[in-house]
């Protein structure tokens, strides 16, 4: 049985007890009554538990109150002691992770049935308020629990089985736990696969499931029933094929799984099978479309997001029909002709897609004056670049970092993932003297969209600002830093003997371009701190740029320019593309090439000019987001750029 409380891990050390939340925060002071009781446990024991609070109702009945547990967890220590006097807590342990005194320094690789027995032995002498979670192997008793305890603070009742399922405690598929004899509508969980401890699952070999793959699990933890494979099992089979079918990015697997989960839950809610007849599926799609467009505000989807959902569901149903899982799909397709770059081809258009705003309606870039205002805002300056004065001046942190990275993004058009996970040693060197020609800026394929290596460019001023940040503010933040990646990210990757191409990572030579974002954020520099370009004050990596950009835009609107738009990272990419097209049309690069050719940079100028005019312009001009043709025509006609 799973109870509704505050998830914590308890360490019984040699002379004390420590409680930690699932986010890594020390919460011992908030649950001091439990910490005192846990002193009776053997030293070295580690328990995975729920801290719950029982509250009496008006009719005299007692139930588990999640609100009371949350109040305790969110309070200050003094207030927590007052709440403990009113409603003492109970520690419901559902797993034991270590018991060195009994010869088990690490119990996680062992089967849950064995861990359960060790847990019962340890808690036999402890007594309340530390108790093992309630469980049964009797089907009738489990049914009785489900009927009588659901809604009293018990989230799920289960009966023991030997089928493999998901275990929160070990964060892996293990042969352990529970199958609920009654299936609840809408009860579905999204989890991510980890092969850690697979040797203990009783399998002949390691499962052929991609690490970190998203998968769906029904609330009863069954993947098949009397009618055969469930829709969740079929969905998981399709999800497992995504890395080889145009979806290699692990960050997209969870999105695909969430889209399928929402659709399957909607089908269960309306009593429709996921692979039902076409008429029933089309009726479900109509109801689903109305719900996601005008229903609960928390569940509404914009046109672009809805179209993404329809695209994913369309791929899923086409695959299911090819594999003979489905005999019909809910979508109607219409044939259309698409013209792009002088190429004509016929395509099928899903009629369930919504119309999106026309290109001349949506503005997704900043004009030159707004772009300068935004970069100054990131640096904590006024729109004109002067410093704020007076008691109401903005006192933001990391202004040098924000301003340097913001200008780099504006001048290079890098995407959010690209500049967030760029390593400090991948920043191009600063030329010895200022130059008018842009500077080549290679981007490794491990962090680019589509995993394709590409080269963009940046300005001398933006690059100089980044190097100034590296040599002062970033150096001070990382100096003597003891930062290490949190355990949930994985083991630290210590770097030594590094250069611009690679370095030794945990003693092994590695090329930087092979490291993906999840690995890059775990890199620890030789002198301490993160290897990423942007760092926090403790030397750890900083990647929350969407928040920084949105807050900066909000501050500009409040303090100086009410018309200032919302700014997201991709808006900077569009701004870069529009500025590039303006300069191309106005002959900016042609003039720059001539000026540089007169000096010592003739070859670089000619190469960049030819590359820019012949390749970059047609590609950027075809970008669907770069839409205000009037602006480009205005520049071409000879009027000054805005």
Overview of the molecule:
The chain starts with a strand and ends in a 6-residue tail after the last helix. Among the domains are: 1-134, DNA ligase/mRNA capping enzyme (D-amino Acid Aminotransferase, Chain A, domain 1), CATH 3.30.470.30; 368-617, hpI Integrase, Chain A. Residues 150-186 and 613-642 have low confidence and may be disordered. A hairpin with a 5-residue loop joins strand 21 (493-496) and strand 22 (502-505). The relative contact order is 0.06. The protein is built from 20 helices and 24 strands. The strands form 9 sheets. Strands 2, 3, 4, 5, 6 and 7 form a 6-stranded mixed sheet that branches. The chain has 642 residues and is of the alpha+beta class. Helix 17 (569-586) runs parallel beside helix 20 and helix 18 packs antiparallel against helix 19 (602-621). The chain is globular.
Topology:
Layout: E1 2-3, E2 6-12, E3 17-21, H1 32-37, E4 46-56, E5 62-64, H2 66-73, H3 77-86, E6 89-98, H4 112-123, E7 130-132, H5 139-149, E8 154-156, E9 159-160, E10 165-167, E11 172-174, E12 178-179, E13 188-192, E14 214-218, E15 224-225, E16 228-229, H6 231-240, H7 250-269, H8 278-294, H9 303-322, E17 333-340, E18 343-350, H10 368-378, H11 399-412, H12 416-420, E19 439-443, E20 454-458, H13 460-471, H14 473-478, E21 493-496, E22 502-505, E23 508-511, H15 517-520, E24 523-524, H16 545-559, H17 569-586, H18 588-597, H19 602-621, H20 629-636
Parallel strand pairs: 6-7, 21-24
Antiparallel strand pairs: 1-8, 2-3, 2-4, 4-5, 4-6, 9-12, 10-11, 13-14, 15-16, 17-18, 19-20, 21-22, 22-23
Helix pairs in contact: 6-7, 10-11, 10-16, 11-13, 11-17, 17-19, 17-20, 18-19
